[in-house]
Each structure stands twice: as C-alpha cells, then as structure tokens.
Amino acid sequence: MASRTDHFREPDTRQNLLLALNLLRYRVYSVRGVTDGIPPGPTTKREPLYPTLLSIWMAAVRDKESFAEPPTLASLAPGFVRNLKSLNVLLHLCLVLASWWAARTFFERPWPALAVAVLVAFNSSMLSTIDVFLTEIPAAAYPILGGLSLGTLALTKAVFFYFLILLVIGTAVWLATVAVRSWPPGRLPRS
Fold it and tell me: pLDDT (tens digit, 9 = 90+) per residue, 131-166?
C-alpha cells in the first residue's frame, strides 16, 4: 500500500514542506521534525523565501483536517496538499503576466508579448514544477521582476539610470572575464 508521502519523492519538496510546516506550527526555520515532543531547533540549510511563502499559504488554506499534531509530511491531508499546489499555479500565472508585460514594454507590440507569454506559460520545466514544491517558479520570476523594478526605478528617479549604466558595464566586464577564463591555457587571443 502506498503512503501519502509517495508524491513527495524529491528531497527539496520534502524539505520545503517541512520548513513551511515548522514555520507555521513552531515559528522556527528548520528541516528537522519533532522528536519526543520537542520542537525542532533552527537550521539554515535552504533558501528562506519559498518556504516562508508556502507557510503563509498554508495558514491561509488550512482547516482542522489539514494535518495532525505534531505536523509531519505523512499527516498532510491530500486535499490540503492540492490546495497548497494552488500557490504554485498562482506564482506561475504571475510569471506569465510579468513576462508578457516585460515583452510588451520592450517590443511595444502585442504579438511578440503574446508569443513570450505563451512560451513561458507552456514551458515544460515550469509546468512540471507546479505539481511539486520546488523553488524553480519563484526563482524564474526574480530576474524579470528585478529588471522591471530597476527599470521602473530608473524612470522614477533619474539618478538610478546611472546605476543601470554601471550594471551594464559590470556585466560586460564579468562576461569578458568568464570568456577569458574559459580559453584553454596558452591559447589566448593575441591583440
């Protein structure tokens, strides 16, 4: 007979869920479970943003039958897990909308923006992470949202435009350094 946690095969999924459960129940950031009735001590093994979002979402969608006391992965009710997956769907939709808005702003036409949104919406690696609790969807949104925020900041306060110039120069220097380091020894191009 299969257990309820068979769909938590990925170690990252189990850790993110356990971190969120511990944040919700004990207000501690830990990948450890309860031992002998003693709440877990804090750990810093994983990035905090997604488990924190998951914990907030757990608080919003839970009911009395969501999990047993003390909360464990095995005690999560299947309906509760399905409700938790709605966070991933929401994050995916936000990523699609942010991609559409960025492309619409960049191309100034609706059709390329629609193409970008469709490509992001039906990206197989993003769609496969909706069913599990991994950090890929939020991580994909950060560069887009960061770029949009920085662009908006530069348009709001002109002094930040110079930061964009420095960022471009810094990125070019970094890429040149990476390119030079990737050349085989003794094979550097001569000027």
Answer: 888 877 777 777 777 777 777 777 777 777 777 788
**32-83 pLDDT per residue, tens:** 877 777 788 888 778 888 888 899 999 888 887 887 777 778 888 888 888 8
Q: What region does 186 belong to: left with phi over 0, alpha with psi -120 to 50, or beta?
A: left
Among 53, 27, 49, residue whose Cα is nearest residue 40? 27
Q: Name the residue with tokens 């356990």.
A: 18
Q: What is the 3-state secondary structure (H, E, C) of the chain?
A: CCCHHHHCCCHHHHHHHHHHHHHHHHCCCCCCCCECCECCCCCCCCCCHHHHHHHHHHHHHCCCCCCCCCCCHHHCCHHHHHHHHHHHHHHHHHHHHHHHHHHHHHHCCHHHHHHHHHHHHCCHHHHHCCCCCCCHHHHHHHHHHHHHHHHHHHHHCCHHHHHHHHHHHHHHHHHHHHHHHHCCCCCCCCC
Closest Cα partner for 132 from 28, 1, 2, 10? 10
What does pTM read for this prediction?
0.67
Terminal-to-terminal C-alpha distance of the chain? 69
